[in-house]
Amino acid sequence: MGKKTGKQTYYFTNPPVIISTGTVAGPIEGQGPLQADFDEILTDPRNNEKTFEKAERSILTRACQLALDHASCPTGEVDLFLAGDLLNQIISSNFTAATLNIPFLGLYGACSTAALGLGLGAMLLDGGFAGTVLTATSSHNSTAERQYRFPTEYGAQRRPYQQWTVTGAGAALLGYDRPGPKITAVTFGRVVDLGSTDPLNMGAAMAPAAADTIRQHFEDTGWDPNVFDLIVTGDLGKIGFELCREELAESGLKLGDNFSDCGIMIYDLDKQDVHAGGSGCAASALVTYGHLYKRFQRQEIHRILLVGTGSLHSTTSVQQGDNIPCVAHAIRIEA
Amino acid sequence: MGKKTGKQTYYFTNPPVIISTGTVAGPIEGQGPLQADFDEILTDPRNNEKTFEKAERSILTRACQLALDHASCPTGEVDLFLAGDLLNQIISSNFTAATLNIPFLGLYGACSTAALGLGLGAMLLDGGFAGTVLTATSSHNSTAERQYRFPTEYGAQRRPYQQWTVTGAGAALLGYDRPGPKITAVTFGRVVDLGSTDPLNMGAAMAPAAADTIRQHFEDTGWDPNVFDLIVTGDLGKIGFELCREELAESGLKLGDNFSDCGIMIYDLDKQDVHAGGSGCAASALVTYGHLYKRFQRQEIHRILLVGTGSLHSTTSVQQGDNIPCVAHAIRIEA
């Protein structure tokens, strides 16, 4: 049974365990600093499929299979599958769900999907509605870029503040009675719209939503941010991350060296040509389910706050002159 | 706390109540047989907005406000907002969430969204994660048609088996300690892909998913279909509905006169030029939150099974030659 504390935060009576994870990273992500912590790395971004969209769903399905295999869990034992992605009508997730044959709840949270799936999955487990939940998400540079901006084949010049959509997929199997880090609290965010209108600068658009949820989490729990080994936003990138840090500091919450961003961590920003860092659902999924999950296993970290961030615009809303509404969800994970 | 029965069905320890609803119907829906049961009817499909997309979100926001007003519930008392729609990146829901300022979980289930929101909302309430949940969805003929098919301004000739995307929005406020029909069981569906490829014949594509979930619900519960005043699919339309009935009969489940479809009920198929009937998220939302909710209030019905149906394709997946995967979620509602 859940217990709400403060305005937006929930504790669990019986905190669900992240039993296993599965990750597949794209070629560029596989050359980055976290390469050793991904299960599989693509050599071909098309993964032997005819289209990039089919490639994206193939790696999402593969990540799910890896998570299931790592726990020796047959699909028939999974009660619910929660997934979403960036593509219109979340087709990567829908087609993966058709393969898995597990009752499916489709999510849309843009790049906050990993956090949304973890939080919702944990609630359904703690609420007694499932014994095992699989949650997953993906993004692909060539599918997202052509849907939101330009086909990558055009070779369009990118602005220095733009982020690089991460190619990859991550899945996590949640349940009980197995070892693993636990999901102990969740803060679901409100949609924040501070008037940002540039879809090429999503980090700046998402920063206020991230700050809002982080502030709310600490207000609701009364915890000291220093008890966390890591407070990690989803994919703000260099510019959005600094804006978020500044906004938090201005409101009296000064975060220290334990504050970072998956979009910054996943690449070597000095050597890899990714401008402001990574974005896309796979940014936080690869970092959390790959790198951070393995750090938990190696007992290098014991308590983190994952703050998934999502930019909730579409090309149509941008073309019609709308602002970019954003959201962030915070998930506390403890050894 | 939830209790799973059979493979895919959940019962509630403390069944949540549908405290209030809010509905806004489009002009054509407002001329149909259920007009008296909608809260508001648009005279202008653009609802004084500059674009159809802005009109869609305006009626979604209005439906939410109506549901809150009918229960005299300020937004500050709602714990979670669950919503989704057909537009790319569910922008109608995102912008409505930005207005409401309630922690937001974005859903994607295509036309099954009303059922998905009801089922998930009920689980979060029964699991102790919320005292009050608002769930809503919308569709708009002119936004969906131009996104999925042709802009309505083209006046493209429609095929006789096509359905008409319903313009409308519906919202439901779920909670406790108030009178109203209760959500007593939920069967979440698997994604079914039987090889259908025609996106103009979505009823036929969705029929097997609807049949799968209905069959599973009765297998899981062991109930007799005749105890329901109504077993109502989301938006199969005339053709999909007959296919679903046939498929169920072939597998030994003969449904009688209490079996119907929201897409058929919402229009007068003899007089209104909507071909095979209604489709879109608003089809089941308007019928359930408008017509059926009021029938519960008038004590004309006491037990229904809503089977929301969703076609999970995108224009990209269709263009790439993919099949159309579909899903259906069943929600038992009892007085």
TrEMBL record, chains A, B:
Pfam families: SpoVAD. InterPro entries: SpoVAD, SpoVAD_sf, Thiolase-like. It comes from the Bacteria. It comes from Capillibacterium thermochitinicola. The gene is spoVAD. Signal peptide: none annotated. GO terms for molecular function: acyltransferase activity. This is Stage V sporulation protein AD.
